[in-house]
Design goal:
globular; 5 strands; mainly beta; five-stranded antiparallel sheet; about 40% strand; 1 helix; SH3 type barrels; about 80 residues
Length: about 80
C-alpha cells in the first residue's frame, strides 16, 4: 500500500468505522459501527458506538489497524 493510499484509508476524526475484531473487554463485537472521536496516539483512536437513537453505549480506544473506514459514496480503488 502506498503512503497516499494509507492516508486515505486510515481512520481520522469523525470517520465512520467498523470493527475488524472483537473487543471483549468493552462488550464490542466484530462488525459493530462507530465514529472516531479523537486520536489517542499514532496507533490508537477513541471510537464512540451509538444505538439507532444516537445514544452512546460504548466509548473505547481502538487500534487503527482493527478498523475499516466506511464510505457512503463511490471511492476510486
Amino acid at each position: 500500500m502506498t503512503d497516499e493510499a494509507d492516508k486515505s484509508t486510515r481512520p481520522t476524526v469523525l470517520d465512520v468505522v467498523a470493527l475488524l475484531a472483537d473487543i471483549p473487554a468493552q462488550g464490542l463485537a466484530r462488525g459493530q459501527v462507530g465514529t472516531v472521536m479523537e486520536p489517542l496516539d499514532e496507533r490508537t483512536v477513541l471510537v464512540e458506538f451509538t444505538d439507532d437513537q444516537g445514544r452512546a453505549y460504548a466509548v473505547a480506544p481502538c487500534p487503527r489497524s482493527e478498523l475499516l473506514v466506511l464510505h457512503y459514496v463511490p471511492q476510486a480503488a
